[in-house]
Amino acid sequence: MNNLVKTFENRRNLKSKYKKARTISNTLSSKIDVPKGLYEQCPTCKETVNMKNTVDNKFICKNCGEHFRIRSIDRLKITVDSDTFVEKGHGYITLNPLFQDGYEEKIADYKEKTLLDEAYIYGYAEINSVPTVIGIMDSYFLMGSMGSVVGEKVTKSFEYAMYKKLPIVIFTASGGARMQEGIFSLMQMAKTSQAVLKHSNMGLLYISVLTHPTTGGVTASFAMLGDIILAEPNALIGFAGPRVIEQTINQKLPEGFQRAEFMEEKGFVDKVVNRLELKETLSNLLTLHRRNQ
Amino acid sequence: MNILAKERKVRELESKIDALGSEEVVNKMKLEIENYKQEAMTNLTAWDRVLLARHQLRPTAKEFINYLCDDFIELHGDRLFRDDKSIIGGIGSINGNIVTIIAQQKGKSLDENLERNFAMPHPEGYRKSLRLMKQAEKFRRPIITLIDTPGAYPGLEAEERGQGEAIARNLLEMSNLTVPTIAVIIGEGGSGGALALGVTNRVLMLENAIYSILSPEGYATILWKDSTLASKAAEAMKLTSYDLEEYGIIDKIIKEPLGGAHFNKIKTFQNTKQGILEELYNLRKFTGEELRDTRMEKYRKFGFFQRFNYDNL
Ligand SMILES: [Zn+2]
User: Fold this and answer.
1) pLDDT tens digits, chain B, 313 residues: what are they?
2) Cα separation of A30 and A83, whole Å?
3) CB contact under 8 A, B161 and A224
4) Within the 210-229 window of chain B, which residues sit less than 8 Å (CB to CB) from chain A?
5) C-alpha torsion angle, residues B114, B118, B120, B125 (rounded to 10)
6) Architecture of the CATH domain B57-303
7) CB nearest to A187's CB, from B153, B249, B306
8) Which CATH code of 3.10.450.50, 3.90.226.10, 3.40.50.10860, 2.60.40.10 fits the domain covering A71-288?
9) N or C: which end of chain B has fewer CB within 10 A?
């Protein structure tokens, strides 16, 4: 009973925070998300890089080509034609089915920090004037983990694409299932896979773009079920995390293991595409599958 | 005192029976044991059930199959890479119903466990399962899966051969089947590795089996940075058959004898057989398309969240 009261109180709090986030996100659209300092050190090549240049270079290190992790809003800006994105399916509230201590507060915190309602956004957009549904996971929201809301929104995005008879492009970035929601998270794997199936049965195209990192329950469901699977260079892609594997087999993993290039070599990714060419590649693929009206 | 300690006490009392001699004293002792079991072995904690689900003596899939089937022919291999011994599959007959059975097999000894990889499948295990499911669909056989795994194997070769893809493919293809499918969780239902055989029309679960997103040890490590809190995690995770039935994740609980399935295996098998036969009978009413559609509707609903109309704010 106490738990329930707590839940409702928290929900009331969330509502007001949510309202605030919604207002901010409307005014956000033209701003690009530049990391704090003007100069920062690239974690890969250790060079000091000018952040402004890096942002202009689609968040790729000019020195070593490292693809930095980006927020969903920035992903949108570098992928779709400006002013074409219409967000759908906003307004879900994450609940706390297992009454995990601190989970609701954590979610509220991420909502405020990221201005998102959950770790996935989707909507209508055009890529070089080709209409499509686009879905983007945001690894800044609790590691992009898939709980009930993410699973529902992913499913909804496929259903929206079916309704509009449109292809769908999904950028994945996820640490896997949302542990805090227990068995409900697990069931999202089945639910999203079925959404792929239904969309596919209508003869529609699904392109999944695996970005760093795509692991666990997301890899083992809709991420690996694309008609065409692209990946960004050096993205970590796998079912089990590297640390878990190292503990299991008791040895260090070889260089480049579970990286995008490795996955391409092993036959699980169609093509590794540099972020600078990603928009072109996507629009080409979408055009090739455009249906005769 | 956890369930294993209680079990040791029962075994100790039982071992004394032989030495007692007179029938009267023996009967008294038996009654005493029975009373103790009634008293101590009901109202199990979630952690007790975890211990029972992993119990050394718990019946494995093969023992279930031996009892369920009048005869069973095992079929090997995924036709792509090799035969994964952590999953056994084949054709069997349950009271005259011809079915395809796919099951995760734990070992009884260390040697057998090494051979079976502790029932942790590689991708080829899931691909073998899929091959046999497709075969079942072609010949219109219902499919029974018996789930008992700590999880899909998190190893180097498993990753190289696409563990994620293999599981994802199974989730999608199992959803598309047009024959009746029934999953029975007989022991551990560990994460995606269990779900990859568990997207079915009906999901049954043995009373003391568990089904969860990861092990309680893993959960405690990830969320509380302390693997020794596993018993607390087991409570928090809602992984018992009773919790999952309440959530509607599973359809039915199959009762186990007092003290766990291994206390009276035949009773366990009987209950399981009865459960499966009932569901086979119920599912016979549906056409292939109805089976597929109702299965999808069921999974479409899973999730725990709320949506509000922000126009009203
Ligand atoms: Zn660099």
Assistant:
1) 889 999 898 888 888 887 777 788 888 888 888 888 888 888 899 999 999 999 999 999 999 999 999 999 999 999 999 999 999 999 999 999 999 999 999 999 999 999 999 999 999 999 999 999 999 999 999 999 999 999 999 999 999 999 999 999 999 999 999 999 999 999 999 999 999 999 999 999 999 999 999 999 988 988 888 888 899 999 999 999 999 999 999 999 999 999 899 999 999 999 999 999 999 999 999 999 999 999 999 999 999 988 875 544 4
2) 10
3) no
4) 211-214, 219, 222-223
5) 60
6) Alpha-Beta Complex (3.90)
7) B249
8) 3.90.226.10
9) N
